[in-house]
Amino acid sequence: MTGDGLLVAVDSPVHRIPAQVKLVALFVFVLAVVSTPAAVFWAFGVYAGMLVAAVAVAKVPAPVVSRRLAVETPFIVFALLLPFVATGPQVSVLGLELSQSGVLGAWNVLAKGTLGVIAAILLSATTAPRELLAGLERLRLPATLVAILSFMVRYLSVVSDDLHRMRVARESRGYMGGRVGHLKAVAGGVGALFVRSFERGERVHLAMRSRGYTGRMPLLSVQGASRGQWMHGVAISVVAVVVAVAARMVSS
Fold this sequence. Notes:
Number of helices: 10
Strand content: 5-15%
Number of domains: 2
Order of helices and strands: EEHHHHEEHHHHHH
Shape: flat
Helix content: 55-70%
Strand order of the largest sheet: 1-2
Number of strands: 4
Largest sheet: 2 strands, antiparallel
Radius of gyration: 23 Å
Structural class: mainly alpha
Distance between the termini: 48 Å
């Protein structure tokens, strides 16, 4: 198994689904999860089961998903604080007096946030960046936005390499970090990186103009998705919508 950025390069039915189908499926699935009342706990169990099945079909290793879930850490911290800072009726949990609305709010943030992040991880692990851009293009995203995202994907590694070299140069001159007095050096490095990136962007733009660039990037791909691919790709999202509607009917 090899990887290209966030992509987990294996052969699976999920990998073979066109990017635009997966993007629509992700959008609809997240909308269904967000619209589900927090108190309908069984619905979130169904969503989690569907995601686990999708991850298994996509052959994405569980350690990969668990490592990438670290991006959710700030939301977890916020959710854990809610029961202590929210107002309203109190409930005793393990000797602690917690707000009932805060506990439900914490569950709401954790459940919906985790499901959404796992769905996004599944998309990034089964779709190459270029395919994502092509999918957005097929979904009629404005060409300017597609071009901006394309340049961001292409030059993100270049900027990160510049940052790494600057850090090595700074440490080779005795910088150890951790002291307030060194903030000036860090701020200067960030400013230099911004100026360097801006100048590189100007040079790239001039080079493109000299080669006939007129403000519109060439089409990334013209391949579409068949009806069968759409049916297979959005199946989990359709089920999620049915579950969300049933959950709202039960809670009303």
